[in-house]
């Protein structure tokens, strides 16, 4: 089912207070799981080595002051009151900001964007358009003219994305390890050393297996301790990234009324206890569990472990979502995406990424074995994502909200200076663990950029080697070969023109299908495409050629259909196009060459008054409801019977009826998917860097990740792949 489409097609109504409070309650585990477990390790990481706890308690009160103002300025002021407003039709996260900028400044990394995409309901631009001559228009023009700036913007978004993936490795490790660290107060140091890491690893394996179903001075020590204080805001980005599952108001209510005061009280309670207990006779030193009464320490330990698991699971699921977005926008290789819920949209599972994260998480846990170095690594990942969000938000304020550039400068200067301070304190810990997110992000960034670069070069090759429409017209309606019954779906990334693979078939095969459809399944820079706007359908050549182009458009958060539903919707969309086109389609050769008109057609479930397909012996009356219908029946055959249920009015002319009959016959005969299996090679004279990227990097990713047939849910039994060499 088109789950997200059904959800988005429902009428939008204002949430009741009961709904808002329910969403706010649900967000406590999903959105704030990571943020709420930070008291487990903030004080321990802060006082690890850089500063010490003196009898005057100045350090404790200084750290508490920093924690209070950091929680107030970053999660509360920046995210709750500002960043949450920059949603992309209800969706949040790094790519939501990038998507907004792509639509308002035409800097999209997607090569096959069309003007028709700007007519989508969710493509609507907020605010008034800027007038020529002002600074906003000049900034927009500068971004659109210079490819280098567009690449820098993409790299900035990818860096933020890579750090989120790195956070998906580090957050489960530090959260679970910190929760388990409470065991050391109940056993000797020697026994604890051999128990803590194995227990943490077992919990982490269990966690990933379940996925399927201010200081008193400004001296150097105080500055370096900011890396530990930074951990109090880990998970703040989740408020924005998980916005699509809840709502702005519900997240604001949950944080301001529950999470924020609870965290402040938790940190104040720890600080109060530590200020009265200076001589703690334990190697554990300062930490969360020393402030817990011994009688309830074991129940608290169990609750902490469960909270760490819930918070980590939310981070892992968020990593899946952002990788799906990257893949949809051509910035990550194809992966297997499993939808784990038929009721809640966006609940996905990616096996390859899940097990990769698990291995990396276990490696970090076993390799570091202490909270300090894990905290250094997690802190750098978190603050980098926040810096990227601040940079992108400053552009959104100007280009999307059309506010004063002075306001954007104030935003980036105020929050950027705070985050830069924490960033420098984290970066100085490079050798003490901060190298891990840098290394992970560098690897993922290379993978993303190589795949994106190769995808662009492949599309450019397809565009440059398109077949002329004049060549097609010269062949005549039969295309110079025998046209046999059936539908041939030729998959292509092109949104106009004839792909080179088609000429290869026509010149080398003695027969081809009666109906040919050039199918393009593409992503657009919006989170969702409504079912009623899913397809763009048009003709390629005159009517008697029976050549059609169908463009299926999906948002970066949409659920793509399975093959059976996709086939039905494709046939219905073409039939509806034929019916709605009417007798007006009578163009000359010159019009065919210069113009390819496309019509917006919805899915069969959204187009209630359109043509419906009834296969086998389905109950037509049940499908039709109360509408007055008539049937166009195809001749009886042994194979399954296909019928089009057509509205009685408007009347369909004779040519359209005949065309619909041929389409039914072709559907009964079967449908075949024809895809090009590309082998890309750098052309002669290319630089060494390009040869390495294309011949080695892109080719390695193409061979070791999912094939297009699998990623697009195309059945192998009806797929024909044709090998083609691309010299780019």
Automatic annotation (TrEMBL):
Compartment list: Cell membrane
Key words of the record: Ion transport, Membrane, Potassium, Potassium transport, Transmembrane, Transmembrane helix, Transport
Entry GO MF terms: potassium ion transmembrane transporter activity
Membrane topology value: Multi-pass membrane protein
Record-annotated membrane-spanning stretches: 20-40, 60-81, 152-174, 194-210, 222-241, 253-275, 296-316, 348-368, 380-399, 405-423, 435-454
Residue intervals of the K+ potassium transporter integral membrane domain: 23-217, 219-473
Keyword Transmembrane helix carried by entry: yes
K+ potassium transporter C-terminal domain segment(s): 486-727
GO cellular component terms, semicolon-separated: plasma membrane
Major location category of this protein: membrane
Family membership noted in the UniProt record: Belongs to the HAK/KUP transporter (TC 2.A.72.3) family.
Name this protein carries in UniProt: Potassium transporter
């Amino acid at each position: 089912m088109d789950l997200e489409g059904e959800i988005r097609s429902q009428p939008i109504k204002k949430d009741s207070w009961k709904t808002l409070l329910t969403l706010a309650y649900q967000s406590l585990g999903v959105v704030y799981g990571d943020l709420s477990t930070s008291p487990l390790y903030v004080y321990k990481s802060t006082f690890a080595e850089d500063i010490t706890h003196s009898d005057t308690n100045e350090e404790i009160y200084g750290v508490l002051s920093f924690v209070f103002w950091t929680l107030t300025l970053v999660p509360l002021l920046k995210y709750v009151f500002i960043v949450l407003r920059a949603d992309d039709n209800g969706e949040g996260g790094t790519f939501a900001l990038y998507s907004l900028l792509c639509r308002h400044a035409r800097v999209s990394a997607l090569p096959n964007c069309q003007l028709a995409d700007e007519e989508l309901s969710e493509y609507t631009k907020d605010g008034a358009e800027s007038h020529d001559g002002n600074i906003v228009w000049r900034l927009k023009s500068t971004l659109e003219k210079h490819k280098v700036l567009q690449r820098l913007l993409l790299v900035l978004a990818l860096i933020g994305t890579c750090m989120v993936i790195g956070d998906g490795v580090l957050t489960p490790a530090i959260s679970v390890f910190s929760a388990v660290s409470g065991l050391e107060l109940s056993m000797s140091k020697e026994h604890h050393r051999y128990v803590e890491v194995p227990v943490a690893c077992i919990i982490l394996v269990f966690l990933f297996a379940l996925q399927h179903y201010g200081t008193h001075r400004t001296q150097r020590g105080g500055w370096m301790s900011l890396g530990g204080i930074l951990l109090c805001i880990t998970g703040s980005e989740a408020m924005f990234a998980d916005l699509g599952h809840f709502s702005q108001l519900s997240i604001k209510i949950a944080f301001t009324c529950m999470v924020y005061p609870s965290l402040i009280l938790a940190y104040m309670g720890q600080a109060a206890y530590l200020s009265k207990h200076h001589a703690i006779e334990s190697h554990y030193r300062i930490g969360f569990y020393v402030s817990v009464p011994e009688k309830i320490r074991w129940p608290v330990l169990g609750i902490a472990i469960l909270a760490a698991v819930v918070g980590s699971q939310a981070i892992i699921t968020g990593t899946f979502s952002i990788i799906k977005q990257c893949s949809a926008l051509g910035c990550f290789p194809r992966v297997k995406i499993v939808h784990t819920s038929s009721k809640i949209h966006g609940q996905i599972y990616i096996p390859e990424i899940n097990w990769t994260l698990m291995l990396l998480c276990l490696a970090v846990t076993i390799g570091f074995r202490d909270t300090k170095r894990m905290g250094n690594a997690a802190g750098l990942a978190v603050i980098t994502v926040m810096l990227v969000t601040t940079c992108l938000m400053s552009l959104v304020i100007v280009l999307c909200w059309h506010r004063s550039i002075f306001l954007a400068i104030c935003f980036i200067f105020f929050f950027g200076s705070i985050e830069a301070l924490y960033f420098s304190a984290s970066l100085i810990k490079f050798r003490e663990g901060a190298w891990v997110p840098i290394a992970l992000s560098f690897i993922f960034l290379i993978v993303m950029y190589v795949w994106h670069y190769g995808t662009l070069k492949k599309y450019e090759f397809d565009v440059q080697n398109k077949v002329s429409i004049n060549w097609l017209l010269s062949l005549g309606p039969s295309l110079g070969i025998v046209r046999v019954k059936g539908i041939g779906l030729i998959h292509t990334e092109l949104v106009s023109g004839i792909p080179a693979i088609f000429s290869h078939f026509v010149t080398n095969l003695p027969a081809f299908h009666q109906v040919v459809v050039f199918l393009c399944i593409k992503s657009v820079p919006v989170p969702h495409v409504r079912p009623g706007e899913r397809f763009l359908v048009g003709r390629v050549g005159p009517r008697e050629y029976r050549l059609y182009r169908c463009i299926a458009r999906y948002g970066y958060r949409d659920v793509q259909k399975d093959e059976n539903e996709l086939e039905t919707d494709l046939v219905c969309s073409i039939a509806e196009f034929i019916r709605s086109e009417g007798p007006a389609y009578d163009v000359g050769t010159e019009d065919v060459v210069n113009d390819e008109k496309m019509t917006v057609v919805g899915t069969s479930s959204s187009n209630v008054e359109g043509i419906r397909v009834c296969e086998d012996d389905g109950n037509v009356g049940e499908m039709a409801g109360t509408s007055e219908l008539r049937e166009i029946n195809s001749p009886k055959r042994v194979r399954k019977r296909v019928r089009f249920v057509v509205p009685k009015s408007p009347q369909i002319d004779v040519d359209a009826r005949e065309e619909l009959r041929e389409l039914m016959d072709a559907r009964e005969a079967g449908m075949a998917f024809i895809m090009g299996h590309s082998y890309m090679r750098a052309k002669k004279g290319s630089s060494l860097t390009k040869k390495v990227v294309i011949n080695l990097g892109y080719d390695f990713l193409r061979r070791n990740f999912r094939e297009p047939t699998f990623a697009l849910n195309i059945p192998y039994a009806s797929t024909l792949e044709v090998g083609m060499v691309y010299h780019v």
